[in-house]
């Protein structure tokens, strides 16, 4: 069924490593009969969220601020086992849709004000993997003051003498 026209098939591949975004595009062009030409176009964009350590985060939890949110992206059953003081809960599973909500609906759904684009957001989870993903989501949605507590709940609970689950 070749009428002499070229057919183009595009394939996009995206891979995520911790705090690094990689993207590559391949384009396969059918020229005639069974001849194919593959054109590779790669783009590499790297963004790494700044990190926060326990010693940097600890004083911030004693002085909550309207200019900052410490956001726990674990699921509610995990949060029930313990959380960092003054943190708010926004599960990673809800994060993509949450950023699209109008401010009043966000507040009614999650119990705190929707962050502004300039507000400091410090993400944490159980071990640092989901908080890395949350940081990337926030960046994609236009937030600019993002940090990741890579030690997350495991580090916090160990230092505070609590059991991490």
Automatic annotation (TrEMBL):
Residues 70-165 form the Rhodanese domain. Pfam families: Rhodanese. One of its GO terms (molecular function) is thiosulfate-cyanide sulfurtransferase activity. One of its GO terms (cellular component) is mitochondrion. InterPro entries: Rhodanese-like_dom, Rhodanese-like_dom_sf. This is Rhodanese domain-containing protein. It comes from Botryobasidium botryosum (strain FD-172 SS1).
């Amino acid at each position: 069924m070749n009428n002499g026209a070229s057919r183009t098939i595009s394939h996009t591949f995206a891979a995520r490593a911790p705090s690094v975004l990689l993207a590559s595009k391949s384009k396969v062009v059918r020229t005639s009969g069974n001849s194919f030409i593959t054109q590779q176009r790669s783009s590499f964009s790297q963004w790494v969220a700044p990190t926060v350590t326990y010693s940097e985060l600890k004083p911030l939890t004693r002085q909550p601020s309207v200019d900052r949110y410490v956001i726990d992206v674990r699921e509610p059953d995990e949060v029930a086992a313990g959380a960092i003081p003054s943190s708010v809960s926004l599960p990673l599973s809800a994060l993509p849709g949450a950023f699209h909500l109008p401010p009043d609906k966000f507040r009614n759904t999650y119990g705190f004000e929707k962050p502004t684009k300039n507000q400091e957001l410090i993400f944490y989870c159980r071990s640092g993997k989901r908080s890395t993903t949350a940081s990337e989501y926030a960046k994609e949605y236009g937030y600019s003051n993002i940090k990741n507590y890579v030690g997350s709940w495991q580090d916090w609970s160990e230092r505070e003498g609590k059991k991490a689950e």
